[in-house]
Every structure is written in structure tokens, then in C-alpha cells.
Design a protein that fits this description.
The chain is an alpha+beta fold. The chain contains 2 helices and 8 strands; from the N terminus they run H-E-E-E-E-H-E-E-E-E. A hairpin with a 5-residue loop joins strand 3 and strand 4. The chain is rod-shaped.
């Protein structure tokens, strides 16, 4: 039996270790990389920003400068810092033209009685607003049981005669507006109806080239003779 020396045994053991190491490397295959982690949930799209407009604040009414008296009796104006305010004149209420009620009555409390219809002037009565935005005037105070109280400014001639009947006298005349060049507005011509013991009704022509006339002036006069 042949005895192996120490160097030969060590060499063989080393070689065997190398062979085992290589075999282990071949069998230990590299593992595939893990799949990537799922992406984070997409962030929500930002909601549209609506720019809110500031609500305008109501401005205070401007105050007048204060005044104070000194010991000498002289009036001294007290300076007031300017404010972002609205002038007092701008807050004044716009005068409202009275209109007819459902019954056709107007407030004539400020009118004075008329005794002579030929001397009545425009502007002395009550300014009113009637049908279809017609502006008109009512002068005097109604006579007892007057049929004129059933009328409204803006009525046509036919509507008026259907209510109060035929006049005692009637006729037409022109106004100064008829002589204005290129004027095509209303009230160039008028039609007047007189009613004995009632008063007078004045109709104005409509704007443009129409031939219709509409009630624009009621003159109450219990002493009306009925003739123009």
C-alpha cells in the first residue's frame, strides 16, 4: 500500500474544494430582480380656482363739514378728512309721476278749481303718466258726477267717446312743434273736445306719420260752456 505524502493530500483537498465551489456557483443561478413596486396613485388634478370678486360695499353718504363757534362769536369751519362716500345730492329721491289707479282715478289734491278753460296754462295742473307711457296733465277739479273721472291719459279718441259720449263742440289746431324742421315726434297737432258742464279734453297726435290722437290733457271745469 502506497502512502501519500502531506503535500499531495493537501493539493487534492484543495482541488476538491475548488470543484465543489464551482459546482455550487453553477447551480446557484441568479434570481430575477423583483418587479418594480407599483406606481403611486396619481395625484388628483388641482381643481380650477375661481377668482372671487369682492362685493362692493355700500358707500356712506358724505357729511358736511362741521362748524364750531369760538369764544369771539366767529364761526370756524372744522376740517373733516375726505371720505370715500356718495354725495348727498346723489341720494335724493327721483320725483315719481303719479299714475292712474285701477279705477282710473288720479290724485288731484293739489289742483285748484278752473273757472275759465281758455285761460288754463300747461304746467299748472298735475303731471301724470298714463297708458302706453303717454305723459299728460290734469287741471282743475272734477264737477259733481263728472264723467271725466273715468278717463285715463293715453286713451284714444274712440275710447274716450265710448265712455263719455260725443262732445258739445270740437276742433283741431297746430302747436309750435309743427314748425320745427325735421321733427317727427308727437304733439304737432291737437284735437280739442269740449263738454258743457264737464270741461275740455285735449288729444295730441302720435309720433311719426300716424293720424291717431291720444288724450294728453284733461281740464275739469264745472262752468264749461261747451263751445270753443
Amino acid at each position: 500500500m502506497k502512502i501519500m505524502n502531506g503535500n499531495s493530500l493537501s493539493s487534492r483537498l484543495f482541488a476538491a474544494a475548488m470543484i465543489l465551489g464551482l459546482a455550487a456557483c453553477n447551480t446557484n443561478q441568479s434570481k430575477p430582480e423583483a418587479e418594480t413596486a407599483p406606481l403611486k396613485a396619481a395625484s388628483k388634478a388641482p381643481e380650477p380656482v375661481v377668482e372671487s370678486k369682492p362685493v362692493p360695499e355700500s358707500k356712506p353718504v358724505c357729511k358736511e363739514e362741521g362748524k364750531s363757534k369760538t369764544k369771539g362769536g366767529k364761526t370756524k369751519s372744522k376740517a373733516v378728512a375726505p371720505l370715500d362716500c356718495v354725495p348727498a345730492s346723489a341720494t335724493a329721491a327721483t320725483p315719481v309721476v303719479p299714475s292712474a289707479s285701477a279705477a282710473g282715478h288720479y290724485d288731484l289734491s293739489k289742483n285748484k278749481p278752473v273757472t275759465d278753460s281758455t285761460k288754463v296754462e300747461a304746467g299748472q295742473g298735475t303731471q301724470v303718466k298714463g297708458l302706453n307711457d303717454w305723459q299728460g296733465e290734469i287741471s282743475g277739479l272734477p264737477a259733481a258726477n263728472s264723467r271725466f273721472t273715468r278717463l285715463k291719459i293715453g286713451m284714444s279718441q274712440q275710447q274716450v267717446t265710448d265712455i263719455v259720449g260725443q262732445p258739445t263742440d270740437q276742433g283741431a289746431y297746430v302747436t309750435g312743434k309743427a314748425f320745427i324742421p325735421f321733427y317727427f315726434g308727437s304733439d304737432k297737432t291737437r284735437w280739442e273736445m269740449t263738454y258743457k258742464g264737464q270741461g275740455r279734453l285735449i288729444f295730441s297726435n302720435q309720433a311719426g306719420f300716424g293720424s291717431g290722437h291720444y288724450l294728453t290733457w284733461i281740464i275739469h271745469n264745472a262752468n264749461e260752456s261747451g263751445y270753443r
